Amino acid sequence: MRFDQCTNGNIFMHGWTLEQCVMSEHDKAILRELAKKMRSYAEQPEEQEKFQLWRDHNDLKETRPLIYLDLENGWNELLPQEFTCQCEGEMAQEWEMWLHKELIYAEKIKCDKPIEAKFYIPYMAHDTMWGIDKKVIGNAHSGEAYTWESPITDEMMEEDVDMSTIIKTPQITIDWEATNAFTAIAHDVFDGILEVERRHWWWWGMELTHPYADLRGFENMLVDFYDYPEKMHEILELFTRGYEAKLDFLEQNHLLTPNTGNCYVGSGGLGLTNDLNPGAAVPNSAMDIWGFHESQETGEVSPEMFKEFILPYQLRLAKRFGLNYYGCCEGLDRRFEYVKQIPRLRRVSVSQWANIPLMSEMLGGDYVFCHKVSPTDIAVPQIDEAYIRRRLHEVLVKCKACGNHVELIMKDNHTIANTPYNAYRWVELAREEVARVYG
Hints:
The protein is an alpha/beta fold. The protein is 43% helix and 11% strand. It has 14 helices and twelve strands. The strands form four sheets. The chain has a six-stranded parallel β-sheet, sandwiched between helices. Strand 10, helix 12 and strand 11 form a beta-alpha-beta unit. Helix 7 packs across helix 8 (218-227) and helix 9 runs parallel beside helix 10 (303-318). The radius of gyration is 22 Å and the shape is globular.
């Protein structure tokens, strides 16, 4: 089996069918023992200290820099070397894998991700998305190269085609029978050891340019700014209305789940904060949670075009959320004067494509400085420790001078060169450099 069946932050994105909702006594016993071990780590005082550290950090209080490592596809190389599934059932194996990931965080990765005595489950849900999809050529899930044919052609853009007949408002349906079945099983397995809590990703972010690039093609999208500006606005308006309708539906049906706890938010880092509603088991509205917005696909588009075509729609969506995170891989230094118009902007991505010293000056102490360390540093069989130290040291010295609320995030790890030591050692090096600069 592949080991990347969980989303970032080890949260299941989708549930299990009724046929998969099977738990043998053999598998239950294995899962309970792992859960007990996880609980023993969660009860350590240092784990509560991590929770408070993240809250203070996201609430813009002075803390040391935080360190977070998310292996993503790197789990496919690490987990086969660290454990073998003992469970027999398909659902039980996924639960076992999730527990092992948490234990590896506690025992080997040892970054600032807290361990808690909770087990998260999703809904069994289906989202129609935009009602139209690209045709993938190749296997998009194999880790190998692939391409796609986009369904919205130049002819459609040139003709007077009503795009609302092509792009549909997303519709969500929930399989309550399956959801209730695996929820009951989770309680039966973990009650008395771990708290079972609902957590579901209805979206990664309020993406606009990613679905646009899927449905038009990336190169076509870049040309559309010039050749079909009115159609481009029409499509972006439909995406925006679709997200607004999805938010309305989730709020009205009390289906939002909190991301203000020990939860991966945006493009990296945890969402712990006291500035929203951290105690709400079910958020009253999107004003109780983090929103996330980015436009990686337009990273090389001029700031002025970004302001004209993308920002107005992002502002409409961002106003729905209590706090907002902006950015992923795109360099934001050229467009930050526009990005900072995002309401209640709190966390900002500082990627390898940004002018990092300039971003440090721009963000100051007004935002969280989410620094995305290059994953190439640990993607080689023999890591260059001196190089890693030097890069981290340069960033930390600048961030300290500018009063940044900085975190070091190692993510986008599509390979760790089949060397788990690389991940563990990177965290150690980051800790040493933080101590060296901040004392």
